[in-house]
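Q: Please design a sequence for this.
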């Protein structure tokens, strides 16, 4: 979403209509050359200037809270965000159990079927096996070994039970170190998008469907 601009913001505190004291009154005809400022008029002008300054300050604060620093996603991509209630594995993977499954537990060497959503560390979507519009899914079936599956994802799935869900931050050194490693989209566009971010941490949300 594009950042809000100052011109698109409306003032949440519109200026009030002038009070009865500040309304212009018809003045009596004075001789030429004599001009006198009214104390009430001067006071109203001071209040008006103070109100304008106050409203500009409020508007500036609102704009600052709505605007997005475009440099933040770049910095966020270089940092590893903390995952709430996470566990850090020896491989450097940080994971969180979102849903505990009730089926058989996955062990190294098992063949598993699962769905996943892959995002960059700053939250930008990369790829998913579940279509976000139709809900149709194309689960992945892979053996839990280091020959076909990226090591980080293997470490995430080991210990999961069928029906369970985990969210994990996978560092690049146990991610797509080789373009032949799975899971990877078959379509050219999503495949290129995923590999273009292979050298940065990736967030995977995994749902284990079956242990075959």
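A: Design:
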């Amino acid at each position: 979403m594009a950042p809000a601009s100052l011109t698109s913001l409306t003032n949440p505190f519109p200026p009030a209509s002038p009070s009865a004291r500040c309304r212009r009154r018809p003045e009596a005809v004075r001789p030429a050359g004599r001009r006198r400022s009214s104390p009430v008029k001067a006071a109203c002008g001071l209040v008006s200037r103070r109100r304008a300054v106050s409203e500009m300050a409020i508007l500036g604060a609102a704009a600052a809270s709505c605007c997005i620093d475009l440099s933040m996603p770049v910095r966020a991509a270089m940092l590893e965000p903390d995952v709430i209630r996470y566990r850090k594995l020896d491989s450097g993977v940080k994971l969180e159990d979102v849903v505990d499954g009730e089926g058989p537990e996955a062990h190294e060497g098992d063949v598993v079927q699962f769905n996943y959503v892959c995002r960059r560390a700053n939250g930008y979507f990369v790829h998913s096996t579940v279509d976000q519009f139709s809900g149709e899914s194309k689960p992945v079936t892979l053996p839990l070994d280091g020959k076909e599956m990226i090591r980080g994802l293997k470490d995430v799935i080991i210990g999961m039970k069928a029906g369970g869900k985990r969210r994990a931050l996978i560092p690049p050194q146990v991610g797509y170190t080789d373009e032949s490693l799975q899971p990877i989209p078959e379509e050219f566009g999503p495949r290129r998008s995923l590999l273009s971010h292979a050298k940065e941490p990736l967030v995977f949300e995994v749902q284990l469907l079956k242990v075959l």
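Q: Thanks. Anything notable?
A: Helices lie at 39-66, 72-78, 151-157, 188-196. The chain has four helices and seven strands.
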